[in-house]
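Two records follow; treat each independently.
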Amino acid sequence: MTASTLHPATGRDALEFVDAGHSGRSVTVHSYRPAACGPDDPIVLVQHGARRNGDEYRDFWIEAAEKHRLLIVATTYPADRFPGPESYNNGFVVAEGGGLRTRDEWIYGIPGRVFAALRASGVTRRKTARLFGHSAGAQFSHRLMAIEAHGTFEAVLSANAGWYTLPALQRRFPEGLDGLGFGPEQLAGWLAYPLTILAGDCDIDTSAENLPRNPEAMAQGATRFERAHYFHDFAHREAARLGLACGWRLVTVPGVGHDGRAMSKAAAAYWFEGRIPPPSELNPAPAPVA
């Protein structure tokens, strides 16, 4: 598979994709393509969590894919090729020693290039895709929107991130945008984008294994739910202070904790049905044992 085309089969598929900027480190594109899905139907790009389980995140979307004729594309960044949070959540931006890698090394451009490869193959004629990320993938997705151009994405949902990059030019990345060479114009563009922050109101476990506990994260709150509110409120305050528009919206998902499956179902219903399902629908009771 070349870096210029990507042609997933109908049903589940998994293809290696060699990004032009990372020739020695391929990613795995896990996809689901319903038989009824055509080239003009919507595409959802999915960012997995810390377990690097793009295959499972793809499967979380299969029910919605069949219902709404969606092409699901979950790109996996294997831990042996992209180790630790710096190589995934934080985009491979900061090098050892604290300096910045070259812009070509940052991985936030990969989803857009995966989408371009789908277009080049003729799988889709869509000009834009939707982007969903949960947990570590939510860290990735909202930082992507801070750094990359927005033209590829018609809608973005960031769900249950462990902590956030703030829209602040005076704080060093990844806490803020300082050091990236960005100025007021880039900040204004990010704030204006209609980013949706999904927050499960039961995502409040302070002892969770993968909950970030670095000082910058702890300053945003003790739980992921608190940090989502901090991020949203900080953005609106900063926009008001600078006289800028802020298109960000915080949406609470009741009865859900740190659950990629439930948050994927909530995101699908929010986008394609205009609703957040009740907890009973997102957390169904287990089937009785015969």
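The next record belongs to a different protein.
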Amino acid sequence: MTASIFTNLFVACVVVSFSFSMWLTWRQIRHVASHRQQVPNAFAAAITLEAHQKAADYTCHKARVNAIEESVSTVLLLALTLGGGLAWLFGTSATFTSGTYLLGLTFIVGLMVATSVVSMPFELYRTFIIEARYGFNKTTWSTYLVDTLKGLLVAAFIGVPLLLVTFWLMEKMGSLWWLYVWLTWTGFSIAMMAIYPTFIAPLFNKFAPLDDMALKARIEALLVKCGFQAKGLFVMDGSKRSSHGNAYFTGFGRNKQIVFFDTLLARLTPAEIEAVLAHELGHFKRKHIAKRMVSTFAVTLIILALMGWVIDKSWFYTGLGLAQAGTPHVAVSLVLFFTVLPVFAFWLTPLASLTSRKHEFEADAYAATETNAVDLVAALVKLYRDNASTLTPDPIHSAVYDSHPPAAIRVAHLNKFASVH
């Protein structure tokens, strides 16, 4: 392949994927807005027209901002590659640093700063404008700044050693460097699953043992019934940052923990909480977590093997705006590859979404066998209402992006179990 052919292929993929994404966003906004004036019949008894319209406006507002951000990000992508931005940044880094590894770190940190300057205004707008306007934001400026600082420190503490090891493996392990990097990254991911609940999550939130004894007894009985072992039941102060509610599992192996947002416990009845937890247990019982881990590791292996193939191809660098003079720095190869990868991987998004929705249906079915499906439906409707989730997404947009089934389809699926229960 020649550099010019690869350049044309890259530009074509950027144009087609961006145009398709914008078309999907336009469809989503138009579809949600056109159904704004009437609550779907399946939800009319539980969700008011005012709440439905709030969800529609919230969805459309976020979609418009996402479209603007994607447009800016696409311009930045072209500026960094064909516009020579990465080449300039690497050259500038080389004037301030010496040493292979320090140069690589300086280059990557510089890129992170540049991309953060572009993305941060959108993050701030979402948090302090959109989320605040619709009554969700509880984050103060001081909390935001402290979270940002903590995040940077954690990223530096964890990321710098991982990058240095990656650089070393890419330089020293010959043509199979990608296999050693994959083994390192896989081991790192597994280790993070084990240490995150104990050492990282408490840096950002407070976790208190569940003190509602009646609810705790109910949940423990469900865990025994489902054959699930958990190290503890905890309540997280999610209300410190947002009024959105959630629950999740964290940890690995015998160190698994169940975490409820305090906002979720405040909204749902004990029976509804049990049903939501049964759904999450369904993901474990149907081995969705293990399947996702295996698929993630497999995809990462394929991606790194692909990088191992293109890393010594001159057309890869010159076709993306970097004049190759000798062997490129490993940091340049790493950054360039993962900068352009999303352009080519975009078309896998519908497949990932389809798999995720299939898992959600299976977890719902499991919950309906272990608890009352009526309670899970009631919980979901409350969460749709309180989180301002649209009940009328565009079908094509949803098929491409949504990890969960549309509300109407999901509730109809659960109601089949409720009628049998």
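Discussion point: The chain has a mean pLDDT of 92. How would you locate this feature using only the token line?
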